[in-house]
Amino acid sequence: MRKLLPSALACLLLASACGTSSGEGDGNRTLNVFAAASLSEAFGALEKRFEAQHEGVDVRLNLAGSSQLASQINEGAPADVFASANEKNMDKVVDAGGVDGRPETFATNELTIAVAPGNPKGIEGFADLAREDLTVVVCAAQVPCGSATEEVEQATGVTLAPASEEQDVKAVLNKVRLGEADAGLVYVTDVTSAGDKVESVEFPESEQAVNDYPIAALSAAGEPELARQFRDLVLGEAGREELARVGFGTP
Q1: Number of C-beta neighbours around residue 167 at 10 A
Q2: What family does this belong to (predicted)?
Q3: Higher pLDDT, 54 or 5
Q4: Could you tell me the pTM of the whole model?
Q5: Domains of the chain with bracketed CATH
C-alpha cells in the first residue's frame, strides 16, 4: 500500500537498475496506478479493497498532478492505470497511443475556496481573492485545478495575483492548512477530506469549470488484466461509494 514519492518513481523508471520488478522473487504482483492528487483519499480506500480481493497483489499509488503523471507515462514510466483530473491530460496519453480502449469518466469535481477554520479573513466569494490584504495560492496552469481556476477568472472577469502556483491541489491545501496562505483554490473533495483543519467558502462561479475525471487501463501495462479489474472497481458500485464519501459528483 505504498504511495510513490518522486524518488521512488525514479527507481521505478530504472526498475532493472534498482533490482525491482513486478512479482519476481516473492510470487507477488504489483499494480502501478497513476492517479490525480485529488483522488488520494478515495483511491487509498479502493487500494485496500482491491488488495483484499486479490491475494498477493500490491497496489502502488503514484499521486501527483495529472499533467506530471501524463508526462511520466508518455516518457515510459511503468504504469498500469491512469486516472486523470481532467480530459486534457488523459488525451495526451491517448494521443501517444498509451491507452487500452477508450477512457471512461468516473467522477466530477468543482472548485471551492479553502480558508482557515472560522474564516478569519472574512472571505465571501471568488472576487474577494483579488484583495491586496490576502495571501492566495492556486494550482499551476498546466494542472487541472489551475486550468479550472483560469476558466473561473475568465468567466468572472476577476484576475488573481497568487503568491504561488503549486504543482498539485494537495500542495495548495497544505499551504492553507499550515497557515502559509489565507486562501487557496482547491476541490470540494479536498476540503471534505481535510476535516476540521480548513473550511470551505463556496462560490457559484465554480459551476463554470466542472472537471470530468477519466480513467483508463494502459496499453503498456505490465499487469493488463489487473489493470482492467482496478478500472472496473473504480467504475463500479464500490468506486462510486468511496468517491461519493469524499464529495465527488457523478458523471
Answers
A1: 17
A2: Belongs to the bacterial solute-binding protein ModA family.
A3: 54
A4: 0.86
A5: 6-108+212-245 (3.40.190.10), 111-209 (3.40.190.10)
